[in-house]
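Quick review question:
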């Protein structure tokens, strides 16, 4: 992974984080590594944290999170509610 790749993903995040945060189930948006089968990969992606990971069939079309944004992969991670201590 190159610094240019990380910079590009950060720029995409900056352009889309407000839009993603308006979705009712989303609690955070960040840049990180994709997780597959419980193991971290070397693929840099947008990480969208949600209260509960739901099947697409249970979401309104507008509330679904795309699998990629501007050709950057998106990883949806269930974290639960995030609260400041």
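Suggested answer, residue by residue:
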């Amino acid at each position: 992974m190159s610094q240019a790749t990380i910079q590009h993903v950060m720029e995409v995040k900056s352009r889309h984080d407000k839009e993603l945060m308006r979705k009712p189930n989303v609690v955070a948006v960040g840049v990180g590594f994709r997780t597959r089968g419980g193991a971290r990969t070397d693929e840099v992606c947008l990480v969208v944290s949600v209260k509960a990971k739901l099947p697409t069939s249970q979401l309104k079309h507008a509330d679904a999170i795309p699998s990629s944004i501007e050709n950057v992969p998106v990883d949806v991670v269930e974290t639960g509610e995030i609260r400041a201590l």
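Why it works: Residues 2 and 66 are 24 Å apart (CA to CA). The chain has one domain: 3-78.
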